[in-house]
TrEMBL record:
PROSITE patterns: FN3, IG_LIKE. The lineage of its organism: Eukaryota, Metazoa, Porifera, Demospongiae, Heteroscleromorpha. InterPro entries: ECM_Regulatory_Proteins (IPR050991), FN3_dom (IPR003961), FN3_sf (IPR036116), Ig-like_dom (IPR007110), Ig-like_dom_sf (IPR036179), Ig-like_fold (IPR013783). This is Receptor-type tyrosine-protein phosphatase F. Residues 329-413 form the Ig-like domain. It comes from the Eukaryota. Keywords: Receptor, Repeat. It comes from Geodia barretti. Residues 24-115, 116-212, 419-509, 510-606 form the Fibronectin type-III domain.
């Protein structure tokens, strides 16, 4: 082949002749393959030669990784590849002064997916059926072609063996699970599969199947006495509020009908209630908004589903207008039950603008929950009452909130007697604690005090001027959190004064370091170890019995150091007789008692001078 350029003047000089390759001159093949390596080799046609080759590769799956090397052999092993991935491999070389490239595709062996699907959603269809939908496994974790999925479900708290639903086909992302038990909590997981096996399961998504009759709006479930915002109910069957039953009653009779009823008890006929219409099926009774009409009345609606045995199953729903903010139009009210030693007080919080999705009660800015309950006060005017039963004084605040922009709150101060001050709790024996306090001044009607602690029944102490009490029969080594409140008949108790104390055991005997006792003719210096939880030490001494008999001394001629501090671990006894033996006792103290160590030591000297 020769080529020359042409212009208006004619044809130029032809190029040097070059032979064109008329057929493939390099033949590629794939050798051994593993999960991360691919070996390729090649041969040349008989009429061509080459000295070097450039091998490059491209990840065709997801990451797009590339690589390139130069080799002088006719075989090369690609390493550190991704698992279960297809690569486009190119070998380039120079043949007859021409750069040529030859391609081949090869895939590493698959392994199990290294991550679960990216999402997992569960939607309740009825009380025995759910749908499960999931996303794709992230590309870099597929490790091969996804061939299917495994969905595992089991009863929460039941045996640790789930039921498997196997799905064939990597493009499928949804399945239906039926024959579940109603009113039962289930955990759902999903895992992806490849030719190498099943990958790891996702975190559990929990769902509770509803009872035999329930309400559903899209995938959200509302059981009996739930609340729904009118604005969430649509005008089509797909967005209607559904009253659903999925199975016949125990008699096996088919569903024969169903009706919606408005707050005053009248039946909801088709297009009869402003803002709503009803259609009826054998298993679903729909309540949907009618396009272009006004807003229906707030209040409690109920749905009845009937069968041929005249057995009615009813579910109630509170429907409220989500237009205005939730509010508390008045202050908190209080009522009292003065029976018993601990009078109870009920705080009442009334709100309008729909039921609260959260009701928070606090006492002095600390959240309290005991005794809380919610009661629908008036279904027609949609007032909602929230109550809290308490026994302790403080500033109580009720805060209500729902899906509307603003929350509302109201407060009430429940006054109690003044609290005792200067409260202390001190161990006064191995199994006793003495609690002391300063009574309020003035007493303000205080007739006594109540001391309580975890694990004990507590005790009431008569007398407003009483200022101490000893708890006995306690357990050594246990930590006690002790609280004390003042008692005034028919009034709440104030917030308790709390003290924490741990009962210690009688201390171990002190250990004397005999090797470092220092003596002179008139002094003996001793040291000892420091046991834990001590309050002090005392050193005492006296002449030994043998010394008193030998010297005919009638008294012991002893002494004491007095109480030493808890961190003192040495003491020098002075003004002793020369060359004389003494019995020395070191005593350690703590709130549970004391223990002692006694030993004998002599001063230096005692010989005669001549």
């Amino acid at each position: 082949i020769e080529v020359a350029a042409v212009n208006n003047a004619g044809t130029g000089v032809y190029s040097t002749p070059r032979d064109q390759l008329t057929q493939d001159a390099l033949f590629l093949s794939v050798g051994s393959v593993s999960t991360t390596t691919i070996t390729i080799s090649w041969t040349l046609a008989e009429d061509v030669t080459a000295t070097s080759y450039t091998v490059s590769y491209f990840n065709t799956n997801c990451s797009g990784d590339t690589g390139s090397i130069t080799t002088y052999s006719m075989e090369y092993r690609l390493t550190e590849l991704e698992e279960g991935t297809t690569y486009l491999i190119t070998v380039a070389t120079t043949l007859r002064s021409q750069i040529v490239k030859y391609n081949i595709t090869a895939a590493t062996n698959a392994t199990v997916p290294s991550a679960p699907p990216s999402s997992l959603d569960v939607c309740v269809v009825n009380s025995s059926t759910i749908t499960v939908e999931w996303g794709e496994v992230p590309c870099i974790h597929q490790n091969g072609v996804i061939t299917g999925y495994s969905v595992r479900y089991q009863v929460v708290g039941g045996p640790n063996t789930g039921t498997m639903v196997n799905i064939t086909g990597g493009s499928i992302s949804k399945t239906t699970i039926s024959n579940l038990d109603s009113s039962t909590n289930y955990s759902i997981q999903v895992a992806a599969k490849s030719s190498a096996g099943t990958g790891e399961y996702s975190s559990s998504v929990f769902v509770e199947t509803p009872p035999a009759v329930f309400l559903r709006l899209n995938c959200e479930i509302f059981t009996n006495h739930s609340y729904v915002d009118i604005s969430h109910i649509g005008s089509t069957d797909d967005t209607a509020l559904l009253c659903i039953t999925n199975r016949p009653p125990p008699s096996g009779s088919p569903i024969s009908g169903g009706n919606w009823f408005v707050p005053d008890g009248t039946r909801v006929a088709f297009d009869e209630v402003t803002g709503f219409s009803r259609t009826r099926g054998s298993m679903v009774v729909r309540l949907r908004r009618t396009t272009g009409t006004g807003t229906a009345a707030e209040g409690i609606y109920h749905c009845e589903v009937m069968d041929n045995t005249e057995t009615d199953r009813t579910v109630y729903v509170g429907i409220y207008n989500g237009g205005g903010d939730i509010s508390i139009p008045g202050e908190l009210a209080v009522d009292s039950d003065l029976n018993g030693a601990s009078p109870q007080f009920t705080l009442t919080c009334i709100s309008t603008g729909g039921p609260a999705t959260t009701v928070t009660w606090t006492r002095d800015s600390t959240t309290v929950t005991q005794g809380a309950q919610t009661v629908l006060n008036d279904p027609v005017t949609a007032q909602y009452t929230y109550t809290l039963t308490v026994t302790t004084a403080g500033v109580y605040t009720c805060t209500v909130a729902n899906n509307k922009p603003s929350s509302a709150s109201a407060s009430f101060t429940l006054e109690g007697p003044p609290s005792p001050t200067d409260v202390t709790a001190v161990q006064t024996g191995p199994t006793s604690i003495t609690v002391t306090w300063t009574p309020p001044d003035p007493l303000d009607g205080i007739t006594g005090y109540r001391i309580s602690f975890a694990g004990g029944s507590g005790v009431d102490i008569d007398g407003g001027s009483t200022n101490s009490y000893t708890l006995t029969g306690l357990t050594n080594g246990q930590t006690y959190t002790i609280s004390i409140v003042a008692i005034v008949p028919n009034r709440p108790t104030s917030a308790p004064e709390v003290r924490e104390i741990t009962l210690v055991s009688v201390p171990e005997k002190p250990t004397i370091d005999m090797d470092i006792i220092d003596t002179t003719s008139t002094t003996i210096t001793i040291s000892w170890s420091l046991p834990p939880d001590v309050t002090g030490f005392e050193v005492s001494w006296e002449l030994t019995e043998q010394t008193r008999r030998r010297r005919r001394v009638r008294n012991a001629e002893g002494g004491t150091s007095g109480r030493l501090s808890a961190d003192q671990n040495s003491y020098t006894i002075d003004k002793l007789r020369s060359g004389t033996s003494y019995d020395i006792t070191v005593t350690v103290f703590n709130p549970a008692g004391s223990s002692s160590t006694t030993f004998t030591r002599s001063t230096d000297g005692g010989g005669r001078e001549y």
